[in-house]
Design brief:
With 284 residues, this protein is mainly alpha-helical. It has 13 helices and no strands. Helix 1 runs parallel beside helix 12.
């Protein structure tokens, strides 16, 4: 069981860094299959969320893909709400939480796939634009020097700065969902960032991972104090997610926007359908 759980952790780390979702979309259903109770499936995935998110975020930071204004706005605004979500999980039936998780996964996957641009878009220009947008947003609000190619591209393709109020609202809701369901929160952030907030998908994934890492701290404390964590599941998951996250970040950095969206949507929808059907039947 420990070996299988480590393997699940590696897969979760890959998907976490590839898709910016925290990895619990894999670990939660997996540990349920390995024998965890519903509430243990919620709590035991949280300790693995933080190291996986940090490992992936560091890799994206080196590539200049993290929009720090967006990432910190999401993470700071949602941190306290992740604690509220974790406390709320104690008064809701665990099986219902599993069904809610599957429903959110299904919505997320469908939303991201619907945002795929038609064939023929220039992926190289899109990727370079993401880097120029991310480099242009720093904690001090200072724009660092760009290369001549980046400067030219930024003039024509860079997106406008996203308003802070919607980012704060999204962070608060995502933090609450992260604490309630034991997922990273990226399952909600990525579709909204790439949809209404018009963030390039790689920047959305990278910025989401930073927020996921911040959310995981109060969520981990709360679920630990509430006794929701089975460390026989949590520790092997933690052992697997870090190497997996490094692999996942590398895959996404080298892929096109279209490929990332297809991977995100297809994998999450597939897991949501199988997992949701199984948990829904268990309620009756």
């Amino acid at each position: 069981m420990i070996a299988l759980t480590v393997f699940v952790g590696v897969l979760a780390g890959i998907l976490s860094a590839m898709l910016g979702v925290g990895g619990a979309v894999v670990t939660t259903p997996a540990v349920r299959l390995l024998g965890a109770t519903p509430i243990e499936a919620v709590g035991s995935t949280v300790p693995a969320t933080m190291p996986g998110a940090i490992a992936g975020a560091l890799r994206y930071t080196r590539e200049g893909l993290v929009d720090w204004r967006c990432a910190l706005g999401l993470g700071i605004s949602g941190a306290a709400l992740s604690l509220v979500g974790a406390l709320t999980s104690t008064v809701i039936d665990g099986g219902l939480l599993m069904v809610l998780t599957a429903g959110l996964m299904l919505w997320s996957g469908v939303t991201v796939v619907r945002g795929i641009e038609p064939q023929g878009a220039d992926p190289e220009s899109s990727d370079a634009a993401e880097r120029s947008v991310a480099r242009g947003t720093t904690l001090a609000g200072i724009t660092p020097p760009l290369t001549e190619a980046d400067a030219s591209l930024a003039t024509s393709t860079a997106l406008p700065s996203r308003p802070l109020l919607p980012i704060i609202g999204l962070g608060m809701l995502s933090g609450f969902i992260a604490g309630l369901l034991g997922i990273g929160g990226g399952i909600l952030m990525v579709p909204v960032l790439t949809g209404p907030l018009r963030t390039p998908v790689k920047s959305a994934v990278a910025s989401s991972l930073v927020a996921v890492a911040i959310f995981s701290v109060p969520a981990l404390i709360a679920h630990g104090l509430l006794g929701h964590i089975d460390w026989w599941f949590a520790v092997p998951l933690m052992a697997g997610v870090v190497p997996g996250a490094r692999i996942g970040a590398r895959i996404t950095i080298g892929a096109s926007d279209r490929t990332v969206r297809l991977l995100f949507g297809t994998l999450i929808v597939a897991v949501a359908i199988v997992y949701g059907a199984t948990e829904a039947l268990a309620l009756f």
